[in-house]
User: What shape does this take?
Amino acid sequence: MSLSATTAPPSPAAPPSPDVSSRRSRGRLLNRLDVKYSPYLYIAPFFLIFGAFGLYPMVRTAWMSLHDWDMIGDHSFIGFDNYTRLFSDEYFWNALVNTFGIFALSTIPQLLLALFLANLLNRTFLRAKTFFRMAIFMPNVVSVAAVAIVFGMLFQREFGLFNWLLGLVGVDPVDWDGQRWSSWFAISSMVNWRWTGYNTLILLAGMQAIPKDLYEAAEIDGAGPWRQFWQITLPMLKPTFTFVVILSTIGGMQLFTEPLLFANGNILGGSQREFQTLAMYMYEMGIANLNTAGYGAAVAWAIFMIIVVVSLVNFLLVRRSAK
Amino acid sequence: MSVTTRRTRLAAAALAAITAIGGLAACGNDDDKPAAGEKPAKLVVDTFGEFGYEELVKQYEKDTGIKVELRKTAQLAEYRPKLVRYLATGKGAADVTALEEGILNEFKPNARNWADLTPLVADHSKEFLPWKWELGKAQDGRLIGLPTDVGSLAVCYRKDLFQAAGLPTERDQVSALWPDWKGFHDAGLKYKQGSGGKAFIDSITAVSNGVMFQGNGDLFYDKEDNIIADTSPAVKNAWDTATSMADISAKAQTWSPEWSGGFKQGTFAATFCPSWMLGIVSENSGPANKGKWDVASVPGGGGNWGGSWLAVPAQSKYPKEAAKLAEYLTNAKSQVEAFKAKGPLPTNLEALKNEAFIGYTNEYFSNAPTGKIFGESVAKIQPTYLGPKHQAVKENALEPALRAFESGQADKAKAWEQFTKDAKTQGAF
Assistant: This one.
């Protein structure tokens, strides 16, 4: 087909001068290249930045994790020794348990509450909707460090507000950072306070995308609000819910600032590591201890793998239960 | 047509952008060392906290014509990661770098990162406290640091609270209450009784800090750097002394909000003060409590908490001139000036004998003769060998275990077990 241009009979008009035709074919070539390759160029900036700040650090971390690596000294290749060491490392498992404990204490109540609030905000009879939607999102705008510092003061042993309130009803003051349950509770409450509104808004957006005629039809069939919620809202909310759950999982597995500031910046997270999370353990091994940087890199990769697995499990669970 | 040309231009622009980014990665190789003997235009000094070098540096600029840039970092916790980054990447370090005791020990096993000062400066080994001078050397004998200050211990106490509880308030009488740690504990019990059950000291980790440097031999490491934390008599002694104080402790972890708030609230009546701590005590207590604090000597005599050295990173382009500057900043005259400016306690023997230093009194602490008190206490510090990860073992093994015992989370045997186990992993290097 492409040859047809040259073999076609000469048109009545004067043939194009060789100069014009060559310019035209060069233009055509550029045009073809443009169509074919320029889309890649347009998206290139993202991939270049991702490559430099996302992919490269990951690959480099993987490389480090195969070494006995001293941050300011020598390193030697040791294969997968760092990873096998993880399995017998008591403090790694401790951090894993803490992370999942705090994750469960923060994600489950948070998502239930967000679902409840979103459902309320979605009601047609509610006045001053925009105000409530703004108000509920406010905590998310506050810097995480500020949240952690203020909550840290509220949960103080000697002069904290919560212990004062407990004292009013005759309960002995709690040493919040001295035990597992109390420290987990304190840290989860920071996470919940900050993220419930955010999740509410996302769920609310999902709810508003559900066609209204479904509800009208259900109403005509005599379904009450409760039944409508279970049989229309929840199933239709499935994709949004999956998204929210996976985001919460990633955030929960990487929890770092809140427990660190709760421990006054001590990377151990309590005198017996009661609330040291995986991310804190990674920091302790990879950055705070100079000579275990390789092991810290292995912890980082373990966190990554755990996030992938947990997200997959969540995804499957949410998909199945909503079916 | 116009659309296509615009696209082509965009594509070209994108291409140009990519080459620009690629080009960025290519530059940044500046390994060009200056010719020997060339005079530097500028030297950079890195310090943390307050070293009191501002005026000294100005004088140096005037004397030598070399400009000096003083980079100050407020907190040691922010300072260390910066240093690690400079060393790990081989770029960015100052020509003269202040190293705190814990950091210095941690960096010693990789001594190659630091210039050997022995050939660069005159022999000053006889001019400083001998043990302090020795600590500036790495395992291979390389001289890494010139001594700056020392964290010699004293006891800060609240006169008003002591009086209310029926204890003496005069600093000599108070010092006489506790010739040893037993006496200190007795005084604490007496205070507790007289004050209706109030705590005497801030925490038991402060006690262990004090006891460890009183010369009972090697601490977490022996001289060959084997970890001996579980068998060392000096550590056991510090452990036993510290744990015996749990009944008079306010259980307020140093630097925590409970601790800093405790100064104003009077949750404890005494705390252990290295000289650099005086500023922190006065700041936490506030102007309202001026004149209520005083300074007495520490039980058992002597003790040390912190202290620093000046080092020259191997990556410095002007090691010779940098060493000269470090030499100037640590000489007797400079150390007295720095003490008068911000309070770091001299380690230079001549500075310690200086009239201006000995005669110095601190207004906030009831005009206590802190120069004399700390000067005497310095002389009593016992030379103690610190292994490579001394700081990590102390902060991440010993102190958490002591706190677990203090707060009742673990009994003494279990806490000791926690300590010895963590000491092995924290101390490995």
Remarks:
- Residues 46 and 319 of chain A are 31 Å apart (CA to CA).
- The longest strand of chain A covers residues 67-69.
- Residues 81-322 of chain A form a domain with the MetI-like fold fold (CATH 1.10.3720.10).
- Chain A touches chain B through 33 residues (CB under 8 Å).
